[in-house]
Amino acid sequence: MVPLQEVIFTNLMQSLFLLCISLLSIFILYLSVKRRNSSKGPQKLIPSPPKLPFIGNIHQISSLYHQSLYSLSLKYGPLMLLHLGEVPWLIVSSSDMAYAIMRTHDLTFASRPSAVVSDIIRFGDLAFEPYNEDWRQLKKIFTIHLMSTNKIASYKTIREAEVGNLIAKIADHASTSSGDPIELSKVLFSFMNDVVLRVVSGKFIMEERRYAMFQEVVVESFCIIGRFSFGDLFPSLSWLEGLIGLSRRARRNRTKWELLFEEVIQAHIQSEGNNDNFVDILLCLKNDPNIKFDITNDRIKGLLFDAFDAGIDTTYITIDWAMSELIKNPKSMKKLQEEVRGIVKHSDMARSEDLNKMSYLKAVIKETLRLHPPVPLLLPRESMEECEINGFTIPKGTKVLINAWAIGRETNSWEMPGEFMPERFIGSQVDYKGNDFQLIPFGAGRRICPGVSFATATAELVLANLIHQFDWELPSGMTREEFNMGESPGFSVHRKDELQLLVKNAPRSDI
Predict the structure, then answer these.
(1) Fewer Cβ within 10 Å of end Cβ, the chain: N or C?
(2) For residue 24, is it within any domain?
(3) pTM of structure
(4) What DSSP assignment string belongs to 72-102?
(5) Span 490-509, pLDDT tens digits
(6) First CA to last CA distance, the chain
(7) Taking residues 285-300, what's their average pLDDT?
(8) What is the pLDDT at residue 228?
(9) Best CA proximity match to 447, nearest among 94, 136, 147, 90
(10) Calpha distance 509→511 (Å, rounded)
(11) For residue 486, which phi and psi values (nearest 5 degrees)?
(12) Average pLDDT over residues 73-101
């Protein structure tokens, strides 16, 4: 029988031997990793503000995300890592870094991250769909068949007819209001609803019950789309999303969109439309044997959702802020009046063909988009593979926010960036179509908004007619110093206070 002391000694020696082997293996692995990392050279850490446990940097972000991120970027740089809850985000705040993301590494950052609300509401749309073959086919269809130069030109009659209705409504108020201000924000929002509804669906959605239903769901969408929900910030606690997040609200909104879209599609099918609006065109393409892509009803709904969600809010916001800046800056207002009235003269209204003659009008739109990009943080992106930017290694799966609001205020790109100065664009080739990264209100690269031309054509036509037909003043007793130019929190940034102005029909000698 083996003595107990010998058994203990043998087991002890075996344990020590295994421990030595384990330590030696760990040491060899450490040397291997160190050698591999040293062969790549020292890796720079992306600047990042100090964070708190669990919540990360949430405490440093106000409800006006873009302004908070801009302030942090002034201290930590144009490429900054921020932890929103458990999730790290790369924040881009300069034109150079935006160029790297959207031009140099455009394909790498062409995808969209998953998000609670958009994943529930979307129908496989262009805006939030990840980068894949389906997205490429949808964008091709949207661009060629719905937003080509010829198609946008074909919507001219609708735009001008609805601008005529808008002018008549404001003129009636000017004649009968007894000096009460007009709620211009509400009037402009209603106008953009009508324009987009007619372009997208013609008369079918203008029926009273459907129109009221549409107004309800579109306002609700604007309130929740693009917002961070609890599950986005704390994925490990996503099981709490249904209790304290936005998912239930998003599902209710999705159901309403579903019912509305289904009604409209069925009405078009039964009417055998004449291809003069989005729904007719998409239904025709659905049955086209030359289209090698399955255009399902859900995909039709996704493209319609894009048209409503992007087409209404962003254009209305641009016109609203342009009028705000002009009333705040009377010299710019007077200069624009002189240009528009000098070109249109005694015509009943400014027409689409007049717009190319109005260089100052286009400068006003550009300056408004520089100071007030409708979606200041653009739509988020996600890297599909590892890459290097400015010496920093950006891992695959990194979520990215590009602060177009901050880029519009870069001191090395803009003289007196906080001032409204449309003159800076006179004679300048800088444009908002994705080639000049100091002005990217619609994004750039593969993910640029495909409705840029439609939105700006509409905004220019409306603004030209508001200036041609009417004289505008602040409400009685309000000074320009008191006029509130504050922003309202949200994915798309509206005025904090709705725009209310006194309006008078311009003297006929002026027009």
Answers:
(1) N
(2) no
(3) 0.88
(4) HHHHH-SEEEEEETTEEEEEE-SHHHHHIII
(5) 889 999 999 999 999 887 66
(6) 119
(7) 83
(8) 85
(9) 136
(10) 6
(11) -70, 155
(12) 97
